[in-house]
Every structure is written in structure tokens, then in C-alpha cells.
Specification:
single chain, alpha+beta, Lipocalin, Beta-lactamase, eight-stranded antiparallel beta barrel, six-stranded antiparallel β-sheet, 14 helices, disordered N terminus
């Protein structure tokens, strides 16, 4: 105990280390540094970033937090000294000035990056859940409007949902109790009965799905099998990549099947929850060929063995679909799944190379289109009377095939339970970093959609479901 205390004090006292090019980089001292809003505002702007990309630095007038914005994702920075910050991984970011003390860029362990535009402004709706609300604001439930997008809208009456709880939920989002919630949609008995958006988000705005994208790859795999592009889920993986030469445990790799990719049981050493795993998705992000990187990894278990949450598996699977269909993954999605669901507005840059280093091949969708996908699986693959995905594939996808990170796992779908005031509800879940959740509660004939901006931190999505949506059904 004493050793840890002394070590902590020593680390706190060491407030300077020399970094590249002989520049001084400060690390956190025992004195808290709290700059004002105006001091932080000087850092706002557009800057260069990795792989010829850009990022934005913005300061919130609501709580004086400073953050980096990469695409749609926001990551808070911690000020530790003048011109010095720590990111969420505790890495140092040093602001660089010229001889006239004007900011010209920033420096990290990954390199030096220039300031491109210092005159950037940000809309107020970025910072406030609802604009111009009075101090005594009280939300009153409103039925969603019919958008004529094939998603049926209905009344909340006789659904069992509690409007008092839903009102309280929205009030707590607006007052900041639950920050950075972007949208909440509830579908009961096949109809959209609740729909609210916050900050700059609205029903036509696309949202990052992060790893919830994996469940869409699962659906497309089932469609590709049903249409005969892929013979079966038992097909071996390596024959799809005959142009490659791979390293490590080659005989064991030859046994990996498509189903092993679906269940995260490939056996490759790439578990994101294991800090000792050789395969690291943050390293893969800037590898020239993610397929080569993934299938070069050593095997730490036989195919079909332990479940490991590994981003390489769905990436390889997506590429297999492309090879089998002779279409890009987004094109195949557009001609099949999306066409049938009436999904016309989406973004999907599926390129397993450095061009996807920040987006990680993720899908961007409207919350309403996420809702359609959840409803499709709730209804065993049927949409508007058409069997879009086979009932058998949907059922297999939502069944337990493995245990990943301590949770039952299907075909790139999770099984999770939520406790709502002493009652346990089991659901099937597509989920992604930041709080992107498509929850299916089959016994309740219920789908909930939550999108949020809790990147690399604990999300409130599960709590919102457990405290304000599910308790309404406890009496039943």
C-alpha cells in the first residue's frame, strides 16, 4: 500500500519529460490546471491528422470542456498546463506556437500536425440537448410523426409504456443528468411510438454505428448464403484468399470457417479485451492490408474454441462477401437488405486499409433505419410481408454459439440482460462504442434504439432502458 502511494506521489511530481526534437512535454502535476473558456477557445480550429485526414478542436460554452472531433466522434481532452493536454488514453498533446506566440499546430508521439483553419465556428445546438428551453422546462410526450418511410407510426396508448417515465427520461437528458445522448426510439408491437433527438441530431441525420455494424455484416452473410454466393457457413476461409501467403500456424488456420468468424471463434490472437494479444485493432488501422494483417496473426486456440472479441473477424468476413458476390459490401447491401428495408440514405466506406483508419469500415445510418433493422430481426426476417432474411438465419444469429467477454454471443449479435427494478429482461443486441444500441426484446415485442456520444467511456444507454423503458412492463 505504501509503495503504491509513494509511486503515485513520485509520478505526480515528475512534471516534465523531454520528447522528440528536444521539446519539453508536461505531464500532469499535483496542481490542477483550470483554464477559462476564453483561454481554451484559442485552441479551436481545424488541424491536420493521421493518414492525410483532419480533426477539429472545439470548446463547449456549456461546461468549458475541450474536445477533439474526428468525423462524428468527440473525445474530451484534459488541460494539464498551458498548451498541454492529455487525451483519453493519457497520451500528451502539445500545442506548438511560432516566435510570435501564434498557434501553428500540435505535437504528439505520432508526429507533428499543422493548424489549417483557426476561424472555425460551431453551432450552438452542438452543446445543448435542446436549444432555448426555459429553466422550468418539462417535456410532455409527443407521438412521432409519420415520415412515409415505410416505418409505421403508432399511438403509445395500450402499449404498456409509461409516459411519465419517458417524460422523466427526456427531462434528465435535457438537464444534463444523462449527457451526450443523441437519439432514442421505441418500437412496440411493430410501430414507432416514441422518437426524440438531441443536440444537432435529427431524424434525417446519419449516425456512426461503430461495432453495431458487425450485425449488419452478419445479416449480409446470411443473404449471400441464401442467394448461393456463399455455399454455406461451413466453408473454409483461407481458400477465398488464394492470392495471399500467410504466416503462423498455417495448418490450424486452414480449419477456420465462416461460422467461426461469425461467432468470434477464429482462434486468432486479436482479443481487444486482452492487452497481451498480438493483434491490436489500433495497429491494424494503419496497416496497408487488413486482411493480410489479420490472417498473419498467430493462432492461440483452435478454430471454434474460445470466443474472443476481435474486429478482424467481421472485416475478413466482409471481404469474403465481396469476393463471393463480386460487389463491394455497400453495393451488395444496397441491392439486397437496404433495398428491401427502404434504406436509401447511408454511408459505408468498407475499405480494409488505412483509408478506414478512423472510421474502421463502419456503417452510418439514420436512427429510423436502425429501427427497421431491429424490427426485421424481431419479426424473424420478414419486412412488409417479404422474407428478407431467412427465418432460420435470424434464429441462428440470435442463438448462443459462444461466450465472448463473459456474455452469450450469436452470429455477431450479443445476448444481454437488463435488470429493471428487480425484474430481469433478456434481449438481443447489436451494439457499438459510444452507446449505439439496437435492443430486441422478443417477449415484449419491443425494439429500442439509442445512439450516443460516449466514446471510449461507459455509456448510459443500458441505464436509460433499465430505468425508464422496461420498468413499465414489470406489472406484467
Amino acid at each position: 500500500m505504501k509503495k503504491n502511494l509513494i509511486l503515485g506521489i513520485l509520478i505526480g511530481l515528475i512534471n516534465a519529460v523531454f520528447a522528440q526534437e528536444g521539446n519539453l512535454i508536461l505531464t500532469p502535476s499535483l496542481t490542477k490546471y483550470s483554464p477559462s473558456f476564453n483561454q481554451l477557445k484559442e485552441y479551436q480550429g481545424v488541424y491536420e491528422y493521421l493518414n492525410h485526414g483532419t480533426l477539429k478542436v472545439a470548446v463547449s460554452p456549456r461546461d468549458t470542456s475541450i474536445m477533439v472531433i474526428i468525423n462524428e466522434s468527440r473525445y474530451k481532452l484534459t488541460p494539464v498546463a498551458k498548451d498541454m493536454f492529455l487525451d483519453m488514453t493519457k497520451d500528451s498533446i502539445e500545442i506548438v506556437r511560432n516566435k510570435q506566440s501564434k498557434i501553428v499546430g500540435y505535437r504528439t508521439k505520432k508526429g507533428n500536425f499543422k493548424l489549417l483553419d483557426s476561424k472555425l465556428t460551431f453551432p450552438n445546438e452542438m452543446w445543448y440537448p435542446k436549444l432555448n428551453v426555459p429553466k422550468n422546462y418539462k417535456y410532455i410526450y409527443q407521438q412521432p410523426k409519420n415520415d412515409k418511410d415505410v416505418l409505421e407510426v403508432g399511438s403509445i396508448d395500450n402499449t404498456g409504456l409509461d409516459t411519465a417515465l419517458l417524460n422523466e427520461m427526456v427531462n434528465k437528458i435535457v438537464d444534463g443528468t444523462y449527457p451526450d445522448v443523441h437519439s432514442i426510439l421505441i418500437l412496440k408491437d411493430g410501430k414507432l411510438v416514441f422518437e426524440e433527438y438531441f443536440y444537432e441530431h435529427h431524424k434525417n441525420k446519419l449516425h456512426e454505428l461503430r461495432s453495431a455494424t458487425k450485425s449488419f455484416v452478419s445479416a449480409l452473410t446470411g443473404i449471400a448464403i441464401e442467394k448461393g454466393y456463399i455455399k454455406s457457413k461451413d466453408e473454409k476461409v483461407l481458400p477465398y484468399f488464394s492470392e495471399y501467403t500467410f504466416k503462423n500456424n498455417l495448418e490450424e488456420k486452414k480449419k477456420i470457417t465462416i461460422e467461426n468468424l461469425l461467432t468470434n471463434q477464429s482462434g486468432l490472437d486479436c482479443d481487444v479485451y486482452n492487452s497481451k494479444a498480438i493483434g491490436n485493432e489500433s495497429i491494424m488501422a494503419y496497416e496497408q492490408d487488413w486482411i493480410q494483417y489479420s490472417l498473419d496473426l498467430p493462432m492461440i486456440d483452435s478454430a471454434g474454441g474460445i470466443g474472443q472479441y476481435c474486429s478482424s473477424n467481421p472485416i475478413v468476413l466482409g471481404r469474403i462477401i465481396e469476393k463471393a458476390t463480386k460487389m463491394t459490401l455497400p453495393e451488395f447491401a444496397q441491392q439486397t437488405l437496404f433495398k428491401d428495408l427502404g434504406i436509401r440514405n447511408f454511408e459505408w466506406h468498407f475499405k480494409p486499409d488505412p483509408s478506414s483508419g478512423e472510421t474502421f469500415c463502419q456503417l452510418n445510418l439514420r436512427s429510423r433505419d436502425m429501427a427497421k433493422f431491429g424490427l426485421l430481426y424481431l419479426n424473424n426476417g420478414i419486412w412488409n410481408g417479404k422474407q428478407v432474411i431467412s427465418k432460420d438465419w435470424v434464429q441462428q444469429s440470435l442463438e448462443k454459439h459462444a461466450v465472448v467477454a463473459g456474455l452469450d454471443y450469436g452470429y455477431l449479435w450479443w445476448t444481454k440482460y437488463l435488470d429493471a427494478e428487480g425484474v430481469r429482461y433478456y434481449g438481443k443486441l447489436a451494439q457499438g462504442n459510444g452507446g449505439q444500441k439496437i435492443y430486441i426484446f422478443k417477449e415484449l415485442n419491443l425494439v429500442t434504439i439509442i445512439t450516443a456520444g460516449h466514446y471510449n467511456m461507459q455509456s448510459s444507454s443500458n441505464e436509460l432502458n433499465a430505468k425508464f423503458i422496461l420498468p413499465a412492463f414489470n406489472k406484467n
